[in-house]
Design goal:
CATH class: Alpha Beta
Largest sheet: 7 strands, parallel
Strand order of the largest sheet: 3-2-1-4-5-6-7
Shape: globular
Helix content: 40-55%
Radius of gyration: 17 Å
Oligomer: single chain
Order of helices and strands: EHEHEHEHEHEHE
Distance between the termini: 43 Å
């Protein structure tokens, strides 16, 4: 029986790179995003290049609790995944004291609450199976405060805290929990920045790190994985 991976926000950037990496290993793929056309394109590409895998691609806005829970029901009908990557995220620049009203709520809903609600909805299946691996896509902004990144950093610090709690709660059920904490990665988030592409990490390198952390023996878990550009933070 083939294994499966769920990656939220999987149509571009790190999420898509993770999907491609696991699809190359024969994993069925479950993903969601807000853009229906991009989802259809991803699904078609995966099915064309990986004829033996099954793909579930669902349009969903995970900043909204009701859509998270609706998505979770579709996932459970497809089958609780072996790997869950809570990757959905949004970055809106701004300082805590003067950022636009609503930025905090949007980033907390998207970056943190979506992962909280989705994990809670799916975890019973992993516990019953006594196996699974949950990855949270954090950020070095969850380790170090940066100017003009107030609410984003708050959401990522909270994500790291939630992941640590999940690790403690689930270790006796043989479910692994890993925080991925990448630095600047060349994705759409950095479009327009006047820096050479070589200054950034590749999304494929983050995906390879996720695959490597997943691929360890059952008695070993990577709890936190910090990945930075060779020349340091941007």
């Amino acid at each position: 029986m083939s294994k499966s991976i769920l990656v939220t926000g999987g149509t571009k950037g790190i999420g898509r790179a993770i999907i491609e990496r696991f699809a190359n290993e024969g994993f069925d793929v479950i993903t969601c995003a807000r853009n229906e056309e991009e989802l259809a394109s991803l699904k078609a590409s995966l099915e064309e290049n990986h004829a033996l895998i099954h793909v579930l691609a669902v349009k969903a806005d995970l900043s909204k609790k009701e859509e998270v829970l609706e998505f979770a029901e579709k996932v459970k009908a497809f089958g609780v995944p072996d790997v869950l990557v809570n990757n959905t995220g949004v970055f809106l620049p701004g300082a805590i004291l003067d950022e636009p009203e609503g930025n905090f709520e949007l980033m907390m809903n998207t970056n943190l609450y979506s992962a909280y609600y989705l994990t809670r909805a799916l975890i019973a299946g992993m516990v019953a199976r006594k196996s699974g691996h949950i990855f949270s896509m954090g950020s070095i902004a969850g380790l170090t405060a940066y100017a003009n990144g107030g609410s984003y950093a708050i959401s990522k610090w909270a994500m790291l805290g939630m992941t640590k709690c999940l690790r403690e709660e689930l270790k006796d059920d043989h479910i692994k929990v890993t925080s991925i904490l990448p630095g600047a990665t060349y994705t759409a988030s950095w479009e327009g920045v006047d820096l050479p592409e070589e200054r950034f990490m590749k999304a494929e390198d983050v995906a390879e790190s996720v695959w490597s952390a997943y691929n360890l023996s059952p008695q070993t878990v990577v709890e936190e994985l910090v990945i930075r550009p060779q020349l340091g933070d941007i």
